[in-house]
Amino acid sequence: MSEIIEKHQTLDEYIDQLIESGHEELGAGSYAEVYSIPGDDSKVIKVGQCDFSFADDPYLEYIKRIDPTNPFCPVVHSVELVKFLDCHRYIVHLERLTEYSKVPNGPEVNQQWFKDHCISSLDCKNVELDVADDRIVDVMDTIHAICHEALHFTCTDIGQNNVMYRNTNQGWIPVFTDPVC
Question: Is the pTM of this model over 0.90?
Fold first, then answer.
């Protein structure tokens, strides 16, 4: 994945530096925050929690396994594993996507897309699919494999905060950004 970088500052000091240099927090979830990159609207920085060994992190495992050419997967530009004075974090530079609430008619687009592509059910250990695009099956197979192999993360986490949208010449398509926890 990446070698471990040691920073001689706390996480709070690092985040303060980001904010002072013009990065804006775009969103936060249970395990990570996402920040803008001043002057580059095509990328973001994701700062996320991971254990002190950097092993068995569901997000890191997911981005390690995804196919970068699959349109339903995020484009990851770089990954850093960072030891701060007070904690460990991953810092990922990735493409900036759009949350469904900011897609024109987002809730309807989201509901219609999933209805059209028939993702019927997902749970911690089983995935039932009837989909029109094999690349979605590839993403679901990756998620399923991670959940089955996991020691301490075993659930899918496919909800409105972990599926973002990319605008393409064929319309808005979902991108499974962080589907395991």
Answer: no
